[in-house]
Amino acid sequence: MLAKPAHSWRFLTAAPEREVFSVMEQLLGVPPYRFEVIAANEARILEYSRRGLFGQWSRPRVRPRWVSCRADATAAGTTVVVEASGGGGLIARAAGRADRGAVTRALQLVKLLTGGIDDQRTIYRDRRIPPGPVTLVASWAGMRYRLYTEPRRDASRGAEILTASELEAVPGGSGAFVKVRLHDGTEGYVERDQVVVAPAVATREAQAQAAQFV
């Protein structure tokens, strides 16, 4: 039997669902917790080992602690619900450590995903893409990227482009999207974190100048 739920957080993040769970696994799913997939849009970490009275590690005998996360894509971003258990056992409570492990890990995930554009440690920071040439960075091994027809993730997709495609950023972007124009005049939107500034002249000086926008 697992520990009872004690805390919950609900918020909106720019990170897509796959990255929410990737971050959760790498940040929280480390000993003495393990990462488990519950459903396509839900996962959790579960305590599998606990330190005893004499410092030894063993399997929890009562109410393992946990943190769960559910992520759902919406037009505005990804809605995330994080829950953490209470508990921790008699030894933890006697030492004043009740539910610290689960709650602390849950708060790490919440803090990282709610940092927003002001958090310079994430790819979702405020990256200015001025009008001009840009390069797609989301195309691996010839995979194509389909432009969005509107600046939102539930919009229909349009023309397909490759890293080598000639792109120009134009006014009209919104939020996490940059409006681009192809060489044939086709316009659409690309996720801001999928493009970087591409100087018209590829010189060391131009690359250094462009770096300030990345």
Task: Give the helix/strand layout.
Layout: E1 5-13, H1 17-28, E2 33-39, E3 42-47, E4 50-51, E5 57-58, E6 66-74, E7 77-85, H2 89-94, H3 100-113, E8 132-136, E9 145-148, E10 157-161, E11 167-169, E12 177-182, E13 187-191, E14 195-197, H4 204-210
Helix pairs in contact: 1-3
Provide a concise account of the structure shown:
The protein has helices at residues 17-28, 89-94, 100-113, 204-210; strands at residues 5-13, 33-39, 42-47, 50-51, 57-58, 66-74, 77-85, 132-136, 145-148, 157-161, 167-169, 177-182, 187-191, 195-197.
Describe, in plain words, how this protein is organized in 3D.
The protein is an alpha+beta fold. The chain has helices spanning 17-28, 89-94, 100-113, 204-210, and strands at 5-13, 33-39, 42-47, 50-51, 57-58, 66-74, 77-85, 132-136, 145-148, 157-161, 167-169, 177-182, 187-191, 195-197. Helix 1 (17-28) runs antiparallel to helix 3 (100-113). It is elongated.
